[in-house]
From TrEMBL:
Positions of transmembrane segments: none
Domain annotation DUF3048: ranges: 64-193, 219-333
Record flagged with keyword DNA damage: no
Gene3D superfamilies: YerB-like
Signal peptide: 1-39
Keyword Signal: yes
Region (Disordered): 35-70
SUPFAM superfamilies assigned to the protein according to its UniProt record, in alphabetical order: YerB-like
InterPro entries: DUF3048_C (IPR035328), DUF3048_N (IPR021416), YerB-like_sf (IPR023158)
Designated name of the protein: DUF3048 domain-containing protein
Top-level taxon of the source organism: Bacteria
Biased composition (Low complexity): 51-70
């Protein structure tokens, strides 16, 4: 069993597909937008802002070069104990686990090949999300509120922001849960169909495992006030996820079991922002290079990660320069703070 310390980071090659401009966006105008503020009960200090988000279709425009692509859907998901079990995590192509205030964790789920009926609970965005999402071509980011001084940066970022204020019909409050752990997104009210695998420009490549792995059936990644444990299951052909010592389940009671888990060691520093309690928000540096461990098939592969610019995806190579592929299926990336 391996244990590592943690925080955030990931990196990937940006797709060259054309940006999608929806008829509703053209009618509204990016500059006009909608008023957006923090959703009631969220932990971000929301304030009114202008959003360019409107309901959209996923039919792509004619690309300048390369395959046609549509924007991926990225959703900020609560990972506090009252938010579990989360909905829609099992349908994500990639799940990023990052550290937030107080040493706790939050998830960013990215959807390209499947759109679940519901995703949530949805929570607030962080500054590091903007750098992480630059690897995609104008992604749709669904979140609920943000620290007030961060909102102008979200406005200027190359993404489409979707909040309960900008798209009220796309969000629902679920009975039986208390705020802020009861807000859920309905992806079908934003997109008619999944954008497709070509939009998933993470830099990850599926293929055979490299040589030189070591047998490791359980790995734990620790944040200051949270932890993730991944236990290999041959029966599931995946890594059973536990969070803070509790099995991570779907609402139907099935264990989450991604075929590939990446523990990526990154720099984590103080950001310019904080929460309403005065806690500073950690900033995960996902551009650069460093060490990583790729888990697949009950084996651990030591690797180097590289993401030269924010527009790139993240590549993983062995010491000999061989590419470390991921297995087909979902990938979890957990950001561990470099010692």
């Amino acid at each position: 069993m391996a244990t590592v310390g943690t925080e955030q980071g990931a990196r990937r090659r940006r797709g060259t597909g054309a940006r999608v401009l929806v008829a509703a966006l053209l009618a509204a105008g990016l500059a006009a937008g909608c008023t957006v503020s923090q959703a009631p009960g969220d932990d971000g200090r929301g304030s009114p802002r202008q959003s360019s988000a409107t309901p959209r279709e996923t039919t792509p425009s004619e690309p300048e070069s390369g395959p046609e692509t549509s924007p991926v859907l990225a959703v900020k998901i609560d990972n506090a104990f009252p938010a579990r079990p989360q909905t829609g995590l099992d349908a994500a192509d990639v799940v990023y686990a990052e550290q937030v205030e107080g040493g706790l964790s939050r998830l960013l789920a990215v959807y390209a090949t499947r759109l679940p009926e519901s995703v949530g609970p949805v929570r607030s965005a962080r500054e590091a999300d903007l750098e992480l999402l630059r690897q995609f071509d104008r992604p749709v980011l669904a979140f609920s509120g943000a620290q007030g001084k961060l909102l102008p940066l979200i406005d200027r970022a190359p993404l489409e922001a979707v909040t309960p204020e900008s798209e009220p019909d796309a969000f629902v409050r679920r009975p039986g849960r208390f705020a802020p752990h009861n807000l859920y997104l309905r992806p079908d009210r934003l997109m008619k169909e999944p954008p497709g695998a070509a939009s998933l420009t993470t830099g990850f490549h599926q293929g055979p495992a490299p040589a030189g792995g070591r047998t490791d059936d359980e790995v734990t990644v620790r944040f200051p006030a949270a932890r993730f444990t991944f236990t290999w299951s041959g029966a599931r052909d995946g890594w059973l996820v536990s969070m803070d010592g509790t099995p991570a389940l779907t609402p139907e009671g099935e264990r989450l079991a991604p075929p590939t888990v990446v523990v990526q060691h990154v720099g984590v520093r103080r950001s310019r922002f904080g929460d309403f309690l005065g806690n500073n928000t950690p900033y995960t540096e996902t551009v650069g290079s460093g060490k990583a461990t790729v888990l697949r098939g009950g084996q651990a592969y030591e690797a180097r990660w590289s993401r030269p610019t924010a527009a790139d995806g993240t590549s993983f190579t062995t010491g000999d320069g061989e590419e470390v592929n991921v297995a087909p299926g979902q990938v979890w990336v957990v950001y561990a703070k470099t010692p």
